[in-house]
């Protein structure tokens, strides 16, 4: 802890007397400064104990009050007036002004040189720095040993909580709580979900400090909380939160920074190893999609502990234009891997930059943790689209990939986040087509009929719709319209004349029906 005015006053060799501001002696002293200027504030930074003999101090109460106000506004933590030179005693007006502003005022006897006070504070500051360096080295050694042991990240969290005298919590890249110490702090750590989620959307490393109630949530637990993202390549790999009863001291900050560095290294691993694992996983996925499942099983057994077994799905995700969408695709991959790692669920992931932008292919268990995590991530991030195959066996993964690609194309054309293969294979054709293209087609095809209906007798558009909906049955369609069947036949001949097409042609009927239905969507 830095020296305080109280510790300076308690130094018996200095013979200091407190004349005002006795309730504010716990303020830390960052430096001792001597000045005889009437306004020394341009040369102050705040946190100083200012010493003066008062040579240039005014004698009037207003002047002394203005002097005290200037010092207090500049952040001076205390004023020491040396008596015996300019002033035989401290002026009462100065005592009253200091008491009014809550500025500690010390009487420095003539026998006490200012240099003695400076040396006392300097020695205390040096001791504080030495303690900070010693403590940080000890903490680094202890945390490093914890990182190298079993359950390294959990051990770091436990040691950090003890060192800070509070609690610590570690979250994975998705923001889920993965370790907390002591155990009773789990509820407090859980209240920080919103703050962790905000940091998850910022480039790493970044941090947030919450003074007062943990997570600014209405609770009786008063904590000073710091939340720090962990990552070296702008993408958060995890998050560390610590809570203490008081604000973190500079020494505790060193300890926290050491823990952040070790946790970042542990979570990041080496970049070369991570890239090699990604390449190997992508190669295995390509083997499975190519139908070489037997060979892929043999390779994966020694490197990845095996392949996903049972009913699987293939998910293909694509990002829209812009760097933010590409980062969201990377976060989707992290969410999938974190979800699988948390429950021991096997998956295969491959990233690629194709002609249509970056893509991510995931092979995972049907309705498993990875599957659900991918669906959730896509719903959270605008700019991502996901196509999902039908459930299938691992041996049919190549077919499933084609299904996922078709579903992705439908999602991108329709501006949707997620499309399952089941939606592509069933239901109406209209949702699968680009809305703008269908609208333009319908307007062009039906324009002659609509222009006719605006200027002449006979509702050709409604008559065509009724006739097509009745599959060309004249009597039924005429009854729906409330006209004679000969009238309807006349109208259909006018439709053929205006369109220049024969209604006997099945393709023409299909196009007209599609155009009419698009206007109803």
Number of domains: 4
Query: What is the count of DSSP helices, taking H or I runs of 4+ residues?
Result: 19
Percentage of residues in DSSP E strands = 15-25%
Q: Please identify, by name, the CATH architecture of the largest domain.
A: 2-Layer Sandwich
Mean of residue pLDDT? 85
Largest sheet: 5 strands, mixed
**Apparent shape:** elongated
**Percent helix range:** 40-55%
What is the CATH topology assignment of the largest domain?
A: Beta-Lactamase
Distance between the termini: 71 Å
Overall structural class, as computed from helix and strand content, comes to alpha/beta
Low-pLDDT parts are 213-220
Key features of this structure:
17% strand; 5-stranded antiparallel β-sheet; 4 domains; 50% helix; alpha/beta; 5-stranded mixed β-sheet; PucR_C-HTH_dom; Udp-n-acetylmuramoylalanyl-d-glutamate--2,6- Diaminopimelate Ligase, Chain: A, domain 1; 521 residues; single chain; Beta-Lactamase; Alpha-Beta Plaits
Verbal overview:
The protein is an alpha/beta fold. It folds into four domains: 119 residues, HprK N-terminal domain-like (Udp-n-acetylmuramoylalanyl-d-glutamate--2,6- Diaminopimelate Ligase, Chain: A, domain 1), CATH 3.40.1390; 122 residues, 2-Layer Sandwich (Beta-Lactamase), CATH 3.30.450.30; 122 residues, Alpha-Beta Plaits (2-Layer Sandwich), CATH 3.30.70; 86 residues, Orthogonal Bundle (Arc Repressor Mutant, subunit A), CATH 1.10.10. Helices cover 50% and strands 17% of the residues. It is built from 19 helices and 15 strands. Strands 1-5-4-3-2 form a five-stranded mixed beta sheet. A five-stranded antiparallel beta sheet has the order 7-6-10-9-8, sandwiched between helices. α3 links the parallel β4 and β5. α15 packs across α19, α16 packs across α18 and α17 packs across α18. It starts with a helix and ends with a helix. About 2% of the residues have low confidence. This is Putative transcriptional regulator. Pfam families: HTH_30, PucR.
